[in-house]
Amino acid sequence: MALISRLDLPPTGPYALWIVAPLPCRRLEGDAVCYRAGNIAAPCPLASSSELHGGNRLAAARRLGCRPEQLLDASASLVPFGPPARLRRRLARLLAEGSALRDYPDRAYWDLRQAIAAHHGLEPDAVLPGNGAAELFTWAARDAAAAGTSLLPTPGFADYRRALACWDGRWQPLPLPLDWSSPGPGPLPEPAGGLTVPPGPQVLWITNPHNPSGQLWSRQAIEPLLRRFALVIVDEAFLPLVPGGEAQSLVPLLAQYPQLVVIRSLTKLLAIAGLRLGYALADPARLARWSGWRDPWPVNGLAAAAGDALLGDQRWLRRVQDWVAREGPWLQARLAAIPGLDPRPTAVNYLLLRGRRDGQALELEPLRLALEQRHRILLRDCRSFEGLDGTWLRLALQDRAGNRRLLAALGREWPGLRGGG
After folding, report:
1. Same domain, yes or no: 294 and 322
2. 22 burial level (CB within 10 Å; 0-12, 13-18, 19+)
């Protein structure tokens, strides 16, 4: 602070100080504390004992002392046989040509927006590409924080809470029942234990199909909610993977409801988590406002140039949906045959697994650790999902060889664990 005390500033202030250097993140007594201007001793997100996202394969490999390719990663819900060959060829051409690396991307992302708009039957100004869906949640949350209290179905994706925290957004859990008998499409369940809604404007966040449960909710069930809320943010990141899922999309309702935002991700469908590409569909005025808030080039040149060529790949889409329709029921039936493991119905390429016997919950965290440490298989720790605990795991569908590897490891580990059977 000696430097600041020597600055010769007029006395009329106030001033904002920008420090263009990394500030230290220091650990104190086992907790990480971030030292940031205006946010002294704030909890550091790196200190969390439970990952907010799956798919951190490099970190897991370092922790386990193995190579990343030795891991079967069932913690991230990506298509296991991707990316598509067509995308690989496209990227190879772009790298050989060099312009997608050398040049700044088009700030308007005109070609990509046109391709997305044509795919959905919209105008390009109703499309905003983003650096994955996560970046777009941040801007949706800024609107949500200004509009009122956000209602977040729980258990639910933790990134919505992260995005709201960026803007001091208020939120309230909307607890969902943890028992369901059908993957859908169906109605939204009644909140568990009822719900007291705070007064004033409200914002509703919906994930369809729901994450982490895998339930698919019908368009007919969701549409009445659009008239009740000041803003409705619908995350359809996994919907293209669901056989017949597009029939439940809310995209056709965008013109009728300016308070509706639909966010999509190509990360899951194309298995391009490292490339980062998603998009928002909404009222053009809203998206123009978001565009003015963010960095100049949020989508890199490779992602922008590759994405516009892949949206209409119906062959790839059929392959992915056929895989979900075939492998999902196959794996679920075999998990259900293991005593003490209760796989819940799902419409998509992941499912929730509950430890339960004779109506009593069974702790699954020892099983997750055993699979990781002895078999190099990663499952999703569910403790970061509001409303779930260590008696739940989420696992992502693999190809047949990967699913067999998972089942073989479960067969070796589950009977020997405390409380297992």
Report:
1. no
2. exposed
